[in-house]
Write a structure and sequence with these properties.
Layout: E1 15-19, E2 22-27, H1 38-51, E3 59-64, H2 75-82, H3 87-106, E4 111-115, E5 118-120, H4 122-129, E6 132-135, E7 140-142, H5 157-165, H6 167-176, E8 180-181, H7 182-188, E9 193-194, H8 200-212, H9 216-228, H10 234-248, H11 252-262
Parallel strand pairs: 2-3, 3-4, 4-6, 5-7, 6-9
Antiparallel strand pairs: 1-2, 7-8
Helix pairs in contact: 1-3, 3-4, 5-6, 9-10
Amino acid sequence: MKRIQLAGYQATHFGYTVSGSVATIRLNRPERKNPLTFDSYGELRDLFRELVYATDIKAVVFTGEGGNFCSGGDVHEIIGPLVKMAMPELLEFTRMTGDLVKAMRACPQPIIAAIDGVCTGAGAMIACGADLRLATARSKLAFLFVRVGLAGADMGACTLLPRLIGLSRAADLLFTGRVVGGEEAAMFGFHNRLVDPEQLLAEADALARSLAEGPTFGHAMTKTMLWQEWNSGLGESIEAEAQAQAICMQTKDFERAYHAFAAKQKPVFEGN
């Protein structure tokens, strides 16, 4: 089986650092509120695909620099060229953007989005693709596709968003493209919790480290089952979870937890 180390990965189109077993991805075009380009889309997709095989990365923090998360696709570098493309090229692009979200959902590591300021368009879909979302009260969430004459059905929005906040609220945001503040998004259940802007990255990093120190094989199984069971009936889901849990019970981490509990100690998980 392919196994790689990604601590030394050198990103070209965004920032990438590793501390311990936590990788942090930073969109780093703050002067434009961190928009995506064709190249950054592709590199992000490829990185998340590689994380499937990474043995040294146990959790991921995804954020943006300069007080904003991501303003979506760059107007001049993406939207401008798109209006000149023929259908085969357009379909190639829309499949690539969707592949980024699929790669985020397929990688075993929990992904925490640390959201401040603007989180719109494709940036909002990256937030949807994350497993957990920490945000600030001043954050601004919007699914802007309708504002440029497109459908709200973009990068999996019509599947992911209703599952996060419910069908009616998702319809509201996707039909109108309106901007939602941090407090309203947290009330919807989109954000897991709100934190002070000065503490956002520290809180996200602390959460990522706590997950990285946990039973990472079990976390990966949880992520897989959350994704797999969306389209399953209750009976299928219960059987799938029975199989998943039985597999986890064969891990050393499960055994370590038992022995630590018996000794009245905190378990030290190793991810195997």
